[in-house]
Specification:
Immunoglobulin-like; Zincin-like; Neutral Protease, domain 2; 34 strands; about 20% strand; binds (3S)-3,7-diaminoheptanoic acid; binds zinc ion; protease
């Protein structure tokens, strides 16, 4: 039969898919046999699917036709039960193949060709650096063969790969290698069999010139397992940390959750062209090189920590995602929220020696919350706000969001808080035992936890509002203290009006249900003494203790605490300890109360939080002042405004508090990010907010000016060359603290002609033996001036290490405006860098390092207009997003989201952003990925 061209799809370009519309598939697939004749220009894929009628689908009447999904495939042949079909026997469109069904059980044979080297979307089968890779989640498998490409179709896979042996010596797929063969004409073959049924999104193959490092480990039950990390030969010296992380992850999952590795062989493959971080394909994880390759010379402490976390994350998916998967893509948080929770716990245990160092655990927790607030809270305040289990989407790729992942993890964490670690573990065991091998829903997960904890006081029905409602609940707290009776009353109010895509779906109704909020609270005397109180909460036994876990379940609710000794005239509440719920808490703290909590709170998270609130109050005060000034008045030493002296005194004390771990001091002296600061703003004026934040930063630098050098010196005995370099949490903490001190010190001396701080930074740059210190020095030296010689040196030294060059691009993309660097100059620098020989315009890491960092992480550098009212940075945005959309819609959609908050900005910028979005919307042939983002932003 001749190849047949596909019929164009219907005019309806972007249908909306609804969670409530879920229906079981008419047919299931028992087994899949695939043969790949790999060739970069034209790969042939022959598939045999064993198909049968879904037992739950209606049994009466005629068998409905089988509708398979496909994309960008050229069909060569189709047969049913090995009998070839004529073109008139089936219907082919661009995205569907409809086949007649002869019986309740039958086979389908198809042969297609595809063009991997032309595949720039990096979904399906593609070529990167002459090697073949796949990415199938969420809907990439349909770009490989015609299939029922949905996660509730779980089949057994047998895969035969054939390729030229010299060009593609390594041939990998999921599961176990069952046969290899030499073929004529220099070709060879490998056959792989995956013993576990899996959804198509977990399919993977890799073929090419790769080398591997191996380890053998023994699991809990005594079974021997082979671990492999496959990379390009030049990167073999950068795999040790990933391997050790994998081994730690395997043992941790056994100990913490009783989950054992189920395959004899577990492989990780690194690829430099990849749309996201990594992918948990069964037994064959494919990773962005960024999350595998590390050694001290090229990777920072943050890179080392990220690698440990992502290696853990993908490995943990083997149970939470692969053995038990999602029924449909609306349930994505079932696997992602749960797996992020698991990787967070893993990282906390690794950093703190399994909890032996609680402050180290707290530092990781703070980092996670900081990330949640600066990404997910912002998402919740914009047009894309959605529940962790969305109700609708146009393009599922747009819903791999901070909400589904990070807020999803907080929802799991609240369940653990409510059930306690033992009850939670019992629930997890029930979940895995009950649903192993199934594709299930978030409701099934919560039900398993509920069934395993019949005695718990948790109303799971109410708890599930966290799954169905979007937005960050705003909790307002009023405290009433009766000194005469020693009684405290907290009056709590929760509010969460419709947000984002809820607003259209709820059609003006404000009918959202109150959440079940686990709220950890404690009280302190005004001197900072921890108080013990008795809490009167319905259904809970009254216990006298310092910390209480409240179940805050009504729109308005009061809690009473008794037993404050008579001598106290006032008490200070510590609320939402350890960030016990993903909410925004409002309590009218005085500066003195926050200073007390910062010094004395027994919860390290809330100690840090008190400091952040102090900074936030001060920055907002400066911002409000700045809003009344014209921009020219906003110099470094603007007349008419002083930074609060009491705050500066506290910061100076904190900086020198030797009882605090350096990692904690570092995190406590880092100001809230721009995004976090916007949370409470009615109108965002980027230049003024940047000015306010920088003014406080400079004041802190000045207030501690006499001590930075000593503080830096104090770290020396704990760092190389005195001790051997190790990227562990403790040493990383010393380095982070030292480098923050250096940053403040250079800032404190920025007006000196010859500055000892700069001299030290330069020395550190040249003498550094690790990338953390080298990059920190470079960043410090470029914070105010361009330091072009050192930047040039760095590029010359690292031009052949793409991951290091990403850091170099990012540093320049995020360079904030300063006295010597105008926003125009920043835009020109970014434009210029697009032409740099180390920039590769189609590589997602490069696009993210340069463009995403500029659009998303340089607010004052990106959002501005010229004196004549033009906004060239937004014109640049339109041009870049539409150019990238033409070859990689997923990456373009990620960039497009950087203007979605436009309505929250000051008027001239907001209008210009709106115009930019409209211009993008009018581009011909916009992908549905970008279209969804732009339409939601403009609605
Ligand atoms: N599950 C993948 C993400 C796939 C994204 C597809 N657009 C990685 C992860 O979360 O582990
Ligand atoms: Zn994941």
């Amino acid at each position: 039969m001749a190849a047949q061209a596909a019929v164009p799809a219907q005019a309806d370009r972007s249908p909306t898919y609804w969670r409530q519309a879920y229906q079981v598939s008419d047919y299931l697939i028992e087994s899949v046999s695939l043969r790949f004749e790999l060739d970069p220009v034209c790969t042939r894929v022959s598939a045999t699917l064993t198909v049968y009628r879904h037992p739950a689908a209606a049994q009466t009447g005629a068998l409905p036709p089988l509708v398979l999904q496909g994309e960008a495939l050229t069909l060569e042949r189709v047969a049913i039960n090995n009998v070839e079909l004529a073109a008139t026997d089936y219907t082919l469109t661009e995205t569907s193949l409809t086949l007649p069904v002869p019986a309740a059980h039958f086979t389908v044979q198809t042969t297609v060709t595809l063009a991997p080297a032309q595949n720039t979307s990096l979904m399906g089968l593609y070529v990167s650096n002459h090697n073949f890779f796949t990415q199938c989640e969420a809907e990439g498998f349909r770009r490989i063969t015609w299939f029922l490409d949905r996660p509730d179709i779980m089949a057994r896979y047998q895969v035969r790969l054939e390729a030229n042996q010299a060009d593609y010596p390594v041939l990998l797929a999921n599961g176990n290698l069952v046969a290899t063969a030499l073929l004529p004409n220099g070709r060879h073959a490998a056959e792989w069999q995956d013993p576990f049924p899996k959804p198509s999104y977990l399919f993977a193959l890799v073929a090419g010139q790769l080398s591997c490092v191996e380890s053998t480990i023994r699991t809990q039950s005594g079974a021997e397992k082979q671990l492999q990390i496959w990379v390009e030969a030049r990167d073999l010296d950068k795999t040790e940390h990933a391997m050790q992380s994998l081994i730690r992850a395997i043992h941790w999952d056994e100990q913490r959750f009783g989950r054992e590795l189920d395959l004899d062989r577990f492989m990780i493959v690194a690829v430099s062209d990849f749309n996201m971080g990594a992918m948990e394909n069964k037994g064959l994880n494919i990773f962005n090189t960024k999350y595998v390759l590390a050694n001290p010379a090229i990777a920072t402490d943050v890179d080392f920590a990220n690698i440990e976390s992502v290696v853990g994350h993908e490995y943990f998916h083997n149970w939470s995602g692969n053995r038990v998967t999602c029924r449909d893509w609306f349930q994505l948080s079932l696997k992602e929220g749960l797996t992020v929770f698991r990787d967070q716990e893993f990282s906390m245990d690794m950093a703190s020696d399994f909890g032996a160092q609680p402050l180290a655990r707290a530092v990781r927790r703070i980092e996670d919350v900081r990330a949640l607030r600066s990404t997910q809270f912002v998402e919740d305040a914009g047009p894309m706000a959605h529940p962790i289990r969305p109700d609708s989407y146009q393009e599922i790729s747009n819903f791999y969001t901070a909400t589904v992942y990070e807020k999803g993890a907080e929802v799991i964490r609240m369940l653990q808080t409510l059930l306690g670690p033992v009850g939670f573990r019992r629930g997890m065991d029930t979940y895995f035992a009950r649903h192993d091998g199934q594709a299930v829903t978030c409701d099934d997960f919560v039900q398993a936890l509920a069934d395993a904890n019949p005695e718990s006081q948790v109303d799971f029905t109410q708890f599930k509002h966290w799954y169905s409602q979007a937005g960050t609940p705003r909790v307002t707290v009023e405290q009433h203290f009766d000194a005469a009776t020693g009684t405290i009353r907290l009056d709590l109010t929760q509010r969460c009006p419709p947000v984002g895509i809820e607003r259209q779906q709820m059609a003006g109704s404000t009918d959202k249900q109150p959440y079940l909020i686990p709220l950890k609270v404690a009280f302190f005397s005004t001197e900072g003494q921890p108080l013990e109180t008795a809490c009167f909460q319905a259904a809970a036994a009254e216990v006298i203790q310092h910390e209480h876990l409240l179940q805050f379940t009504q729109a308005k609710q009061s809690f009473e605490f008794k037993g404050v000794p008579a001598k106290h005239l006032a008490v200070i509440p510590s609320l939402g300890r350890d960030f016990s719920a993903p909410i925004s808490l409002q309590y009218p703290y005085s500066q003195q109360a926050l200073i007390t909590l910062l010094a004395h709170d027994t919860d390290p998270f809330n100690r840090w939080e008190a400091g952040q609130q102090l900074f936030q109050q001060e920055i907002l005060r400066l911002y409000t002042w700045a809003q009344e000034q014209d921009e020219a008045a906003l110099s470094r030493h603007a007349a008419g405004v002083e930074v609060n002296a009491a705050l500066l005194a506290v910061v100076a004390q904190l900086a020198q508090d030797q009882t605090l771990a350096p990692a904690f001091r570092e995190i406590s002296l880092t100001l809230p990010s721009f995004n976090v600061l916007t949370e409470t703003l009615v109108v965002i004026d980027p230049a003024r907010l940047h000015w306010a934040r920088e003014t406080l930063r400079a004041a802190i630098a000045g207030a501690v000016a006499a001590h930075w050098e000593t503080l830096i010196q104090q770290t020396s005995p704990h760092l190389p060359p005195v001790v051997a370099y190790a990227p562990n949490a403790e040493q990383a903490g010393y380095r982070a603290w030292r480098n923050l001190c250096l940053q403040y010190w250079v800032l404190a001396e920025s007006e000196l002609v010859s500055s000892p701080a700069r001299v030290l930074a330069e020395q550190q740059y040249w003498a550094a033996t690790n990338m953390t210190d080298r990059l920190a020095a470079l960043s410090v030296l470029t914070q105010e001036s361009t330091a072009s010689e050192i930047l040039t040196d760095f590029a010359a030294q690292w031009q052949h290490e793409p991951l290091v060059m990403d850091k170099w691009f990012s540093l320049q993309a995020m360079a904030a405006p300063s006295a010597t660097r105008s926003p125009v100059a920043i835009l020109q620098a970014v434009e210029h860098l697009l032409q740099h020989s180390a920039y590769s315009p189609r590589n997602p890491n490069k696009i993210y390092a340069l463009l995403l960092r500029y659009f998303a992480n340089n607010p004052a550098g990106f959002h501005w207009q010229s004196v004549t009212g033009e906004t060239p940075s937004y014109d640049f945005w339109v041009a870049q997003v539409s150019a990238i959309d033409a070859f990689n819609p997923q990456v373009a959609a990620r960039l497009a989201r950087t203007l979605e908050q436009w309505q929250r900005y000051v008027a001239p910028l907001a209008h210009a952003m709106q115009r930019a979005l409209q211009q993008l919307q009018q581009q011909p042939a916009l992908s549905k990925d970008v279209r969804e983002v732009v339409e939601k932003a403009l609605q």
